[in-house]
Amino acid sequence: MELRDAGRICLALLGLVCFWGPVTSVHAETAQEFIAKAPQGIALTNAFVTGESVTDSQQQNSAKVITAQGSASQTQAVLVTSAPQQVGTIWSQPGNEFDLTHDVTTSMWMYFGDKREKAADGMALVIHNDPRGLKAMPQFTDKIFGETLGVWGVDNQNTRTDPQAIAATAIQNSWALEFDTFLNKTADYAGAGLGTSFDTKLKGPHIASNYPGDAASYQLNRVTPGILAWDKTPRYYFNLNHVQPIQGDKNLLANGQWHHITLDWQSHTQTMTYTFDDKDPQTGEPLPGKQQAVKLDLQKIDPEKTGKATWGFTGSNGMEAANNLVIFEGVPGLVNASAKATLTDLTTHQSVTAGGQVRGDTPVELTYRVNYHDGKQDWAGVQLDVALPQRIQFTQGEVTYANQRRQTLTAAQLKDGHLVATLDQDLNMRNHQATIRLTGVTQNDVRPQPIAATRASFSAVNGIATTAVPKLTLVPNYQLDLARESPAKTTVKYGDAPTIRGQVTWPSSVQLTNRELRLQATVNGRKQADQPLDGPVAGAVRYTPAAKLLKGGHNDVQLKVRDNYGNTSPTIKVDVNVVGTLSLDLVHSEAFQTTQLTGQAPASVGRAGDWRVLVRDTRAAGAKWQLQIAATPFRRTADDHPLDGQLMYVDGQHRTAITADPIPIHRGTAMDDQPVFDVAATWNQQRGLSLHLGTQALAGEYQANLHWSLNDAPH
Q1: Which among 615, 558, 608 has a CA at the least distance from the CA of 581?
Q2: What per-residue string of b and e applies to 669-679 under the rule 16 or more CB within 10 Å gives b?
Q3: pLDDT value, residue 32
Q4: pLDDT tier, 712 (very low <50, low <70, confident <90, very high otherwise)
Q5: Which of 61, 98, 285, 410 could form a disulfide with 280 if both were Cys (CB 3.0 to 4.6 A apart)?
Q6: Helices (H) and strands (E) in the chain, counts
């Protein structure tokens, strides 16, 4: 523990030399000033009460409840500790215990001062069944140790070696989640037993948990004096075992900001999840936060199996101090409520998400849905304190309740960027929802303008729900125009593509660059990837579609320009006529199978090798073609002897002789998605070319010439 005297500095160098100087007076904010800057919370009446003091004067409870001055919602904060040598506790009142048998979600705001690494000492959230009830606190003797945070055991004897003896001085039957702003890192012979060693294994301010009344939470350490010391007696100190720590630098806790924490208890898994810094203190906007989850041993918290526990906050300070405050957003069991904000663009009927854009001169609807989920009490007298998004002029509003009642919001309630009103209806299980709808129109500007996140709170003495409209960008709304500079119709050869030219313009008052413009193209109904306008001429459009996108015949190419703010030009259209061709790309005929002649009956000889007949038709879809074949007679290569046989085209049971006169064997149609067609790929054992031999065929190798012809002809 650091010891300081603000008015003097003393140095011991073979004697004592003291330098005296004036003490500078620095204004320190009062707790009332802290709470005046705090987020909204609830009144603590009938929910929490400050802990009862122990008769020992060293253990007087310092916690006190402070009401925010001028707070219509009666927000109250608990000032747990604010000065050296204090211990403070605040506990739930009987009837409002933490229900361990049901799922519970609760949240609060915490403030640790602004001294950063010099802050002391922090606070702890505690759930307990200590028999002392509202008097539960550590068993201090001559002084208060800050490292206990008002809940852990007291390490004040350097000869003690039993961790159970330390645990016995803590709050019993408890689980604690500590928010420790000051590192107690003494780990030497002189510091043993002075209560300054719980954090020797950590590096900075932290959040962590364990069971204060459990011996396993404390780790014994033994230290011996130096070799020159006359007393060789060892001394002992204890470390605290920190479970699932969230560690950070000096700004993690005591940075002069309010910090939000949410507790989520899942009774079926007995898991407590805590999320720290999950809301922006200025806007209430949700933040990712830092999260950990711990599975609790209820036998250590509720050994009598009552299913409930007292809960609240504790804190203690040694020789240093800081203002440590807590504001509750709700009390489990009283009122469980939530709120959600949605801003909708009424032109597109799309909600605007965080970081999104809304265009100028656009009608919008801002909706707040406030829901009562359950609770012991009705949520009555709910007050609306809604900061409205800037650059939007709201003209009217209405509240609709689940029971079909309606409440009009007047112009007087919608002014100066705020909505201040009170719900006419109480919210409960019979009337569980209030929907606040505000309609308005966005302003317009020639350049994008930021819209800051805005917070809304819905509060009563027994519960509060908050939400926020996230930060957005208001983008200019104006007319883009796109003129076509290329002909409306153009013709190219298949495989080529034209370059379509145009010029986009915008009002002279608007400053745009090509970097803010995107070309959107559609070819034959298929949207293409947006392209930047990256040329040197402002607004110049140059688009060359990929040749593979263009089919034979007429192609519909449509272009429009969109800027980064959602402004879109009219669409221009160009008819690209692609002139295609019809051709035989490849004819590859191999051979017929080798056959053994028997001389008894005609033999049918099948094809051998890789036969391919490729027709390329790049004309407009639907054009017809016809493939014909003719052949010379087969003759033996050795002596030109004619073969007793006939080349045939077989199609199932139908056979056609192939002679010197061409005959059609296949008919096809041009298709956009298949410009090349392999006729031979359609052949099989019952279809295609086949050689039929007579009984007089002689052995040998024979050849014939095949003549293929492709015609542009109807079927």
Answers
A1: 615
A2: ebeeeebebeb
A3: 62
A4: confident
A5: 285
A6: 3, 56
pTM passes above 0.70: no
Angstrom distances, CA of residue 150 to CA of 110, 165, 211, 314: 16, 17, 13, 5
Per residue in 661-674, pLDDT (tens digit) is: 999 999 999 988 88
The answer, yes or no, to whether residue 685 has pLDDT greater than 70, is: yes
Kindly provide the b/e burial profile for residues 594-632, where b requires at least 16 CB atoms within 10 angstroms of the residue's own CB: eeeeeeeeebebebeeebebbbbbbbbeebbbbbbbbbe
**Closest to 176 measured CA to CA, from 119, 131, 121, 242:** 242
- DSSP β-bridge partners for residue 50: 90
Query: Residue 122: pLDDT band by 50, 70, 90 thresholds?
Result: very high
pLDDT value for 309: 96
Does the pLDDT of residue 676 top 70, yes or no?
yes
**Residue with token string 């459990």:** 214
**Distance (Å, rounded) from C-alpha 606 to C-alpha 689?**
8
Regarding beta strands 454-460 and 383-387, do their DSSP bridges make them parallel or antiparallel, or are they unpaired? antiparallel
CA distances from 178 to 80, 122, 153, 322, 635 (A): 14, 8, 13, 16, 102
Cβ neighbours, 10 Å, residue 534: 11
CA separation for the pair 105, 436 (Å, rounded): 25
Sign of torsion over alpha carbons 337, 338, 344, 349: negative
Asked if the model's pLDDT at residue 142 lies above 90, the reply is no
Q: Which of 3-17, 70-84, 142-156, 513-527 has the lowest mean pLDDT?
A: 3-17
Q: How far apart are CA 316 and CA 85, in angstroms?
A: 7
Residue 65, φ and ψ in degrees, nearest 5: -95, 135
Residue with tokens 């130096």: 226
Q: What is the CA radius of gyration of the chain?
A: 43
481-484 β-sheet, strand order: 481-484, 500-505, 540-543
Residue of 198, 201, 200, 192 whose CA lies nearest to 161: 192
Burial class (CB in 10 A: 0-12, 13-18, 19+), 661: exposed
For residues 495 and 507, the answer to whether their CB atoms sit within 8 Å is: no
Instruction: Give residue 136's pLDDT band: very low, low, confident or very high (50, 70, 90).
Output: very high
Residue 36's pLDDT is: 67
Would the pLDDT of 25 be above 60? no
DSSP state of 684: B
Fill in the DSSP letter of residue 165: H
